[in-house]
């Protein structure tokens, strides 16, 4: 296993290093691949001739050193990406996130909290009654309470938290700000027409929504339901039947399919509203646009750690990753490698289970 990992590491070095580094990495690779002392001697002699070095033993030492150095560098980079920096000046006693499970803006905030390993509680908001946030003048989600202090609007919440974790740093601007705005103004609008694109995908998504929270759907849906009374009636009725305990299995099943159908028709309205002609093409284009923005870097800013734009993109994509739309996105675009790195960097949820 160590040899396989070493080969993979040297492979990365061959694609990233300079001319001298590549020659030394090649030496390390060939030295590692030899399976006997005789083969090792033969390889070393050939490498000495090829690299213009007079002593094959020197090649073996250089190759071994290079292999160790490259492997150590790669491991260090992985460790840095997974590091959860915390400021001693920001140690809240209690953080509570009021959310809808499927809301992309709520998931942006959760990605930030998870990455920085900040423990938080979740309160699922009923989007019909909103009784859980009756205390607030702000009637949208997410709402974050930090030791009783209210924060609202996902981007503003993240800016405030970032400043408290990094009190000596200013809020990032330029490229990072541009792509965070792209997430809010474009990427989130591509998602709903995709996850409710067909009746089967609408059913799959409705299953996800009703099993990950009580009654929840994004604020975008609620706005559209207000404009279409029959859809609002159907959806509210379906949520009621599914979540209230004194209904039969058959009644809940009917409600499930009716709710999925309502979402399917809503997705068509969203598609028209945002001028989307082909849902999947729009999703693939958004994924490729983001990969192009990376310019070959592991993360948007380069280096070993994701920035706020990386976290924003990851946050809104995470709920769909293992739905049909998310699987298709990873299969048909180049975003999978970056997404995998982000999964490792963000790590496990910091949510406090109650």
UniProtKB/TrEMBL annotation:
Reaction(s) catalysed by this chain's protein: prostaglandin H2 = prostaglandin E2; prostaglandin H2 = (12S)-hydroxy-(5Z,8E,10E)-heptadecatrienoate + malonaldehyde
GO-annotated biological processes: prostaglandin biosynthetic process
Domain GST N-terminal residues, every copy: 93-169
Name the UniProt record assigns to this protein: Prostaglandin E synthase 2
UniProt topology in membrane: Single-pass membrane protein
Any one annotated GO CC term: endomembrane system
One of the record's GO molecular function terms: prostaglandin-E synthase activity
Gene3D superfamilies (UniProt xref): 1.20.1050.10, Glutaredoxin
InterPro entries: GLR_AS, Glutathione-S-Trfase_C_sf, Glutathione_S-Trfase, Glutathione_S-Trfase_N, PGES2, PGES2_C, Thioredoxin-like_sf
Family: Belongs to the GST superfamily.
E.C. no: 5.3.99.3
Transmembrane segments: 230-249
Keywords per UniProt: Fatty acid biosynthesis, Fatty acid metabolism, Isomerase, Lipid biosynthesis, Lipid metabolism, Membrane, Prostaglandin biosynthesis, Prostaglandin metabolism, Transmembrane, Transmembrane helix
Entry's localization field: Endomembrane system
Organism, scientific name: Gossypium trilobum
Pfam family, one: GST_N_3
Pathway note: Lipid metabolism; prostaglandin biosynthesis
EC category: isomerase
């Amino acid at each position: 296993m160590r040899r396989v990992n070493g080969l993979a590491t040297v492979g990365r070095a061959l694609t990233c290093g300079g001319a001298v580094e590549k020659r030394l990495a090649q030496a390390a690779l060939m030295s590692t691949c030899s399976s006997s002392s005789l083969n090792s001697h033969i390889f070393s002699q050939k490498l000495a001739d090829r690299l213009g070095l007079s002593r094959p033993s020197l090649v073996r030492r250089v190759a071994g050193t290079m292999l160790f150095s490259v492997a150590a560098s790669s491991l260090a980079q992985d460790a840095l990406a997974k590091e959860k920096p915390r400021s001693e000046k920001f140690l809240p006693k209690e953080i509570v996130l009021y959310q809808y499970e499927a809301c992309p803006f709520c998931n942006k905030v959760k990605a930030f909290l998870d990455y920085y390993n900040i423990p938080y509680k979740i309160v699922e908001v009923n989007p019909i009654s909103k009784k859980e946030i009756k205390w607030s003048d702000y009637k949208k989600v997410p709402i974050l309470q930090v030791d009783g202090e209210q924060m609202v609007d996902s981007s503003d919440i993240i800016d405030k938290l970032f400043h408290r974790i990094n009190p000596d740093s200013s809020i990032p601007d330029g490229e990072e700000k541009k792509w965070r705005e792209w997430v809010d103004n474009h990427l989130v609008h591509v998602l709903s027409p995709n996850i409710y694109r067909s009746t089967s995908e609408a059913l799959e998504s409705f299953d996800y929504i009703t099993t990950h929270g009580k009654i929840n759907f994004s604020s975008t849906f609620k706005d559209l339901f207000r404009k279409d009374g029959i859809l609002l009636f159907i959806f509210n009725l379906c949520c009621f039947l599914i979540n209230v305990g004194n209904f039969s299995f058959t009644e809940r099943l009917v409600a499930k399919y009716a709710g999925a159908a309502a979402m399917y028709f809503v997705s068509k309205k969203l598609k028209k509203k945002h001028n989307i002609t082909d849902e999947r093409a729009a999703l693939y284009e958004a994924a490729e646009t983001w990969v192009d923005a990376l310019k070959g870097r592991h993360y948007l800013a380069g280096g070993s750690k994701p920035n706020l734009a990386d976290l924003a993109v990851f946050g809104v994509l995470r709920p769909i990753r293992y739905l049909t739309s998310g699987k298709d996105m990873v299969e048909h675009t180049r975003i999978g490698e970056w997404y995998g790195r982000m999964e490792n960097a963000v790590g496990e949820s910091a949510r406090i289970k109650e």
